[in-house]
Amino acid sequence: MLRILFPYIFILLLVSGCGENSATTIETVDPLPSWQGDSRDALIEFVESVTNEGGANYVPPADRIATFDNDGTLWAEQPVYFQLIFAFDRVKQLADQHPEWQGDSLMSAAIRGDVKTVSGFGMGGLLKIVAASHAGMTTTEFEGIVTEWIETARHPVSGRKYTEMVYQPMLELLAYLRANDFKTFIVSGGGIEFMRPWAEAVYGIPPEQVMGSSIKVEWEESGDSFVLRRLPELNFIDDKEGKPVGIHYFIGKRPLAAFGNSDGDLQMLQWTDGREGPSFQMYIHHTDAEREWAYDRDSHIGGLDKGLDIAAEKGWVVVDMKNDWKTIYPPASE
C-alpha cells in the first residue's frame, strides 16, 4: 500500500532524542481528495490491484496504458465544443479578408457565432469552417495562434479561461495514475494540433501522447527554409470507431484503462474491455446542473445514450458528477 501511494505520502520525522526517545510519525495524504463514493473506491481498488507485484491482476508498467477523451472528460464541453468557439473566433478575425463570406449563409452564421444555424449544415458545414479557420498556415503559425487564443479567450458562461474549465478530480486522477507508472494519453475527437500546444502544461500529457482528429499537411520548401503547411483537407477523424483505430496505429497496445463521457467514446471503452486480463472503464456522467451542466441521452453535445446502457450491462464505473465529485474546477486565476 505504501509503495502504491508513495508519491502522496509525507514522512515527518520528529526526533526528540536518541534511542528510546526517538519517534516517527507517518501521515498519508489522500491521492484523490476531490473524489468520494463508489467511483473513488473503484479507482483505488483497481490501481492497487494492477500494481501489486505478485498479485493475480498485476500488470507490468510497460502495459499500464490509460486513455482519456478530452471534451467532457478532462474539460467542459458546454454550451458548445471549445474548439468550435475557437474556429468562430478565427473566422471573425479573418472576415475582413473575405468579404464574400457575408453572402455565404454558413460563413456569415459563423461570424455571428450562430451555433444553431451552423449546426443545420451538418458535418459538411463544420468541415468548411474548419478549413477556413484552421488551414493555409504553417504548423508553427497555427501553434502560435492556438497558444495566444488559449491564453486570452474566456468561456462565454463562466468568464474563466478555457484551461480553467478543466476538471479538478480528473487532474488528480491523471497525477495518481502517473505516480503509479501509468502512461496517460489523450484520445479525442478534437483537433490534435489544437490540443498539443497546451496539453502538457494543463494535464501533464506531452504532445507525443496526444491523439486527435487532423487535417492533412504537406512539406514545403522555400529556398533554405522548410515548413509543414496545413491543407483544407481532412486526414483522420478520431471519434467513435476511429478511436480504437487510432490507438492501434499510434499506441500499438490496448489500453489498460479508458475514460470517456459520451457515445463517441464507447468504442474506445469496448476496445479496452476486450483486452486479455484486467481492465477498467469509466464514464463521466454530467449530472450537476448547478456547478456545471446536466445532460446525457438527448444532448447534441456529448450525448451519452447507448453508452449508459452498455455500462450498466458491463459493470463499468459511471461517475455521478453531482455526488461523486466534491469540486468541479480548480481555483480561477485573478
From TrEMBL:
GO molecular function: hydrolase activity
SUPFAM superfamilies on file: HAD-like (SSF56784)
Matches recorded under Gene3D superfamilies: HAD superfamily/HAD-like
Source organism, top-level taxon: Bacteria
Database matches in InterPro entries: HAD-like_SerB, HAD-like_sf, HAD_sf
Signal peptide, first to last residue: 1-23
Stored PROSITE patterns: PROKAR_LIPOPROTEIN
Coiled coil feature spans: none
Protein name: Haloacid dehalogenase-like hydrolase
The entry's keywords: Hydrolase, Signal
Residue intervals passing through the bilayer: none
